[in-house]
Amino acid sequence: MPTDIIKMASQTTKISEISDNELAQQLSVIYFMIGLRPQHFPTTEEDKFLFYYIRTNFGHKGVKEIYLAFDLALKGLLDIEDIKVYDQFSIEYLMRIMNAYRLYCKREFAEVIIPTPVLIDNIKLSNEDKLEEIQRWKEKKEIIFKILPTYLHDWLVELNIIEVSEKDKMIKFSKATKLREDELRNEAELENIKLPYKNFIAWRKNNFIDLPPDEVQRIENIYKRIVTFEYLKGNYDKKD
Fold first, then answer.
1. Which residue from 51, 78, 105, 196 has the least number of CB within 10 angstroms?
2. Structural domain that includes position 136
C-alpha cells in the first residue's frame, strides 16, 4: 500500500543527520533517474547552497523520501504537469516535486506524522541515557526547530532540568499558536490548501473553544519545541 511505502521511507535516516557525501550520493541517483546530464550537475558552490536548502526545509524527512518523491513523479502519480529538468536542477524544480509529494502524502492519509524514534518508544531508558541524549542535542552545531523531538521537553521537565513559570508558559503557548497559524497560512498561500487555515481563524475568533484535539496536540508540540530550543540554545539554566 502507498502509505506503507511512505512510512518506510519516512523511517530512514533523517536528512539532517547524513553527511554531505551521503546526500550527494542520493542526489546523484535522482540526477540519473530524471536524465540530468553530468555536465549539468550542480557545481561545488551550487551544491553547498543546495545541501543547506534541503537540510533547512526537508531535514526532518527520511533520506529515502526524496528518492520516493521523484520516483512517484516519474510514474505520474504526483499532481504536477511537467517534471522535465531542462538541464538545470534548480531549487524551484526541487520544490515543485517535494510540494507535489507532500500533497500526495496528505491524500493517502490525513497527515504523514514524523515518527518518534522506535527505540525511545519501546525501551525504558535510564536517566543517564536521557541526560546523554540531551547533551548530544546540546552539542549540535545547528538545531533545526521543526525536527526537534518533543520527548526532549518531557525529559527536561521530568529530570527537573527546566521549570517554566505559568506566565512564561502562557507566553510560549501564545507563540506556539501563532506559529501554527503561520504554518496554515503558508499552506493556504503556497499550496492552495485553504480550508484548514479558514477553520483555524474561525476557532481563534471563538477563543479556541471548539479547537479539535489534533490541533491542540500540534500546538502543544510546537510549545514543547519552543521550550526545548531555548534550553538547547542556553536560554535556560540547569537547576542546581
1. 196
2. 118-232
